[in-house]
Design goal:
Elements lengths: L6 H60 L6 H12 L4 H63 L2 H12 L9 E4 L2 E2 L10 E2 L2 E4 L5 E3 L4 E9 L3 E8 L2 E11 L6 E2 L4 E5 L9 E8 L2 E3 L9
Antiparallel strand pairs: 1-4, 2-3, 4-11, 5-10, 6-7, 6-9, 7-8, 8-10, 8-11, 11-12
């Protein structure tokens, strides 16, 4: 059975057919116009090209007919020389290679020489810097040594000098009852400025020579009682308040020899040894030289 189409559907289809026809007409007309324009452009280019070719042909013909320069003898000879010249490509390659090798070697040698010179300069600079630093260190050490010496007292300097002259040992073992220097006076026989140290022990204990030397004094007086002086160059040791003296003036003694016994003679508060060390008549604290405690 055939489908029944309404009037509205017929109208719609008629409109679509009309629109399609109008659209196809517009496209064909546009294509035709564009195609004609393209053909016209190609024709114009072809005409221009033909004109240029004609001009070139005419120019060449004119030159050939008016001059003989192009085919002159000089041009022909030059052309033949160039064509007949034997070019040794292998030789040219070797020459170029040798040239490049020489250039590279020169550049490498220059770099090596520059590096070597730079290393030498750096070494010289480092050596000079080391020398300067050593000089500075030596100067600093000298300054520091001088400063330390300035800070040391005369007695400390004398003690170091004495140690370089003689070797020492304790004259005897006992109790230190009075040290070197100022002290509190508790008796009329005591001095406020003590020039040595007092070592207390029982009467009769042997006293040893603290150093090697010569007995310069072996005598008795009111302050020291029985006492001995032993000298070695500019160094002197004194042993006071002794009970008995075992040496006499002029005797040579060694360090550790028995020279006396402990007593309480002279201005003494009890049995003990009064011991002194002097350098050129300057008193030194014995504890700066000998370890007693």
């Amino acid at each position: 059975m055939e489908r029944v189409i309404s009037d509205e559907e017929k109208i719609r289809r008629a409109i679509e057919i009309s629109q399609r026809r109008n659209q196809n007409y517009y496209i064909n007309d546009t294509a035709r116009v564009n195609l004609n324009n393209k053909k016209d452009y190609k024709l114009f280019k072809r005409m221009i090209l033909q004109i240029i070719i004609c001009l070139l042909i005419y120019l060449i013909f004119y030159l050939v007919s008016t001059t003989n320069y192009v085919f002159s003898d000089q041009i022909i000879k030059t052309t033949n020389f160039i064509l007949n010249y034997d070019i040794n490509l292998e030789k040219i390659y070797k020459d170029c290679q040798q040239f490049l090798t020489t250039m590279l070697n020169n550049s490498e040698n220059k770099v090596i020489n520059d590096n070597f010179n730079q290393m030498q300069e750096n070494n010289n600079l480092s050596e000079s810097n080391i020398v300067e630093d050593n000089k500075k260190d030596e100067k600093k050490e000298e300054v520091n040594t001088k400063e330390v010496e300035k800070q040391k007292t005369q007695m400390e300097q004398d003690a170091e000098t004495v140690k370089t002259i003689c070797k020492f040992q304790k004259p005897l073992s006992g109790t230190i009852t009075s040290g070197f220097g100022e002290r509190e006076v508790t008796s009329k026989v005591m001095s406020a400025d003590h020039k040595g140290i007092d070592i207390a022990t029982k009467i009769g204990t042997s006293i040893k020579s603290a150093m090697e030397g010569t007995v310069s004094v072996a005598s008795k007086n009111n302050d020291y009682g029985n006492f001995i002086k032993i000298i070695n160059k500019d160094v002197m040791t004194v042993y006071a308040h002794c009970e008995k003296l075992k040496v006499k003036e002029g005797d040579k003694v060694k360090m550790g020899d028995t020279i006396a016994t402990v007593g309480s003679t002279g201005n003494s508060t009890g049995p003990h040894l009064h011991f002194e060390i002097r350098l050129s008549d300057r008193y030194i604290n014995p504890e700066l030289i000998i370890k007693f405690r």
